[in-house]
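Hi W.,

Here's what went into the run:
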Amino acid sequence: METFIECIDLKKRFGKKEVLRGIDLKVIKNETLVILGGSGSGKSVLLKTIIGLIPLDSGRIVIDDEDVTDFEESQWQEVRTKISYVFQWGALFDSMNVFDNLAFPLREKKMDEKEIEGKVKNTLSILGLEGTDFMYPSDLSGGMKKRVALARSIISEPKCILYDEPTSGLDPITANQINRLIKQMQEMLNVTSVVVTHDINSTFYVADRIALLYEGKINFYGSIEETKKSNNQILQDFISGRVPDEKWQ
Ligand SMILES: Nc1ncnc2c1ncn2[C@@H]1O[C@H](COP(=O)(O)OP(=O)(O)OP(=O)(O)O)[C@@H](O)[C@H]1O
Ligand SMILES: [Mg+2]
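Here's what came out:
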């Protein structure tokens, strides 16, 4: 099994708050890793450090066999063409319609407009968003916004997608659609995925492997089978929802 992302002893604090206290984690190529953890446990911070949006205090990150830890901003931009990040809150450009939102990463790459048009139409249809080309983000429902954000992150055919809470705030039907899409991305495009969530149903549907972030460290890491069989009490409490959220921060 080849590793696509390796995190080695990552540490990050904000003032007195130590959010990451030595994260060791591997993301295997072509697999989906789900990172579980309570609200405020540092899941979003971890994803943002992996793509260089938040600088680390210490530790190393290796992506696709390249040590990216000390990269300059221009080199990070290169990394972000391989790894796409779907923000927790969508982060579409509100002043652009759906078509232009999706075309944006392709125009950055100087692709020609005809080719862009074909790709945008195709991606919209994969995500069941036909006919939304000229709508603005403010006219879309929560579920549609998430799908447009997803469309924008897959359109440039990344090797890896990081999803931050892709199903939070969605009704169960839309959440299931998103889960199916995450699986399709892996199966159709062979992408490596990291999904951050506290949705246990989604976890067991999309994951090949599960990691639990707790008190700034990876408290558990294993396959679905290993997760189900594990006697790790913290993991089992989390999965069954037995622990109040405060304990997780
Ligand atoms: N830029 C920042 N400056 C200061 N503190 C921050 C910053 N970003 C995150 N934090 C703090 O780091 C901790 C972890 O935040 P993070 O957003 O990673 O949590 P999370 O696990 O993603 O939570 P949620 O499930 O609610 O999204 C929180 O206490 C948060 O307040
Ligand atoms: Mg978060």
